[in-house]
Amino acid sequence: MTTTQSLSHTVLWTALITPMLEDGGIDFDGLSALAHEQAAAGNGLLILGSTGEALALDMAEQQAVVKHICALELDTQIMVGVGGYNLDAQRQWLAFCNDYPIDAYLLGAPLYAKPGPVGQEQWFRALLDASEHPCMLYNVPGRAAVSLDPQVLGKLQEHPRCWALKEASGSIDCFEQYRLAAPKLAIFSGDDALIPYYAQAGAAGLVSVAANVWPEATHHFVQLSLQGQSHNAFLHWREAVAALFHVSNPIPTKCLLHTLGRITYPTLRAPLTHTEVDDLQPLLRVHDSITSWHSTQV
Length: 298
Fold this sequence. Notes:
By secondary structure, the chain is α/β, with parallel strands linked by helices. The chain is 43% helix and 12% strand. Strands 1-2-3-4-5-6-7-8 form an eight-stranded parallel barrel, surrounded by six helices. Helix 5 (117-130) links the parallel strand 4 and strand 5 (135-139).
């Protein structure tokens, strides 16, 4: 089993998109190409998160993605998303994934239900108990409609498989509350644009959407942020991240990757659609900006 110590070397996890064919089927060739790009850049892979449209895939498709990524035998670490509403279904998903050579799980709060502290602790503890790999808990009130209670996090940090937190509230104050409540956990920024600020407050790294488009540049940006040297790069990255999130993630990311020829189609599963992006020029401008910035760093 992967140890939390070995996971500490991965400072950037790419929340990988799931490329799709024109008819909506999974583009496994495209998935392989993207995964190899990330591994070559030294980035860990988070598959089947919200950026990977996991909830729009059926169970057989999710299982096929895990099997496919593991069969690539990449020289990088792999984390699998665990998210939904039904606890028994999540336990079944963990039981399936436990049999594959993955390194970690991302455990999301139950969607829609908005549990209080007692329900949150019961939910996460049940998933931690069912896991055979280290787990990163996920605070994302924008999707789960509830924030992880800091006192609950403080209790869960004692669980032997509770390794880290992905903090995606967009609030430095929340980050500080979690850091004080759970000093044993590694806390990762879940917002690309905020990694310079979170790094100053003690973040261990970033779970990134932008790295889908710029694997090497994002890795370098995270390293600069963790070293406190990202000041000159922040404006470029703030504009780039804003462009990637001007409509729902991962729509702009898929549109830009398609325009750059990195995926064959910009297809998403309903209710998301690439037709939400009616002007590609802002995305191409920030791509040029990041590419130009990175060229000055190497």
